[in-house]
Fold:
Amino acid sequence: MPISIPRNLANAIAGIAATLLIGVPTAHAAFPDKPIKIVVPFSPGGGADLIARTLSADLAKELGQPVIVDNKPGAGTVIGSDLVAKSPPDGYTLLLSSIAHSVNPSLAEKLPYATEKDFAPVAMVVRSPNVLVVRADSPYKSVKDIIDAAKAKPGKLTYASPGNGTSSHLAGALFEDLGKVRLQHIAYKGSAPALTDLLGGQTDILFGTSGSVGSFIDSGKLRALAVTSAARSSAYPSVPTMVEAGVPGYVSEGWYGLHAPSGTPAPIIEKLNAAVRKATATDFFKSKLVHEGMVVQTGAPIDYENYVRAEIARWSKLVKTNVISK
Structure:
């Protein structure tokens, strides 16, 4: 026999239920429902900054939310990386990771995070060569000139970099190793200040990212002597590779991708990965970066994870052999 509930009791129960529902957070709100932040662990104005800001424009269109670039330079990218590692794993704070991400584990005695445990790979974005450049009025007209000068006065020639562990730093260390020379490394907090001092005559050479030095090469303020990739760059077809310039076995490339904090749900990672793939396929993105010698390369999160692990193993050997430290 059906139980009859008095109308006033039924209304009270309905009211309580409605109150409880109002207090329930929107846990199932579709991602993203607020702005996303990309932390760039370098100063504004360099190649990393260019990539992040170019990528953010198309990511915003794909995700339907603003994508903000937040520069957090310092400590060879450790400051910005640590900020992301300790952020909520909800997909709203991402790291523009680079070769420094794979070098810091062997470069630093102790990091405030565990590189292979505290980050979740989202996607690789681009790969690019570094470009060995000097000022337009530099006496060095070739890689041979630099090697000869470095051998004549070991440790006197200086090379600038955006920071310890960056692709520019490692390109220089590899040059010392394979060219059998000794240079003095000067680390800065980003590409912009490194370029400023190179142009001002405070340093002699720079293995700059193609994105950061391209406009200066085009304007004639810098002279490109070689690219660090295995093949010549489409952006600088007349510039030889380091191997062609006389350094056997030399290959070094920079790269950039996105990481999220570890624990970020797989569906969110997948959505971000899909958005990156679409964003990097646009004519706008390619037009901004291909001219700088960068090559778009994306893939699944696992592809990026495997690539970074291989880079960690590769550069660890160079760091130990050359006793490189922060």
Observations:
- The radius of gyration is 24 Å.
- The beta strands are 36-40, 67-71, 93-98, 119-135, 158-161, 184-187, 205-209, 222-227, 253-261, 295-296.
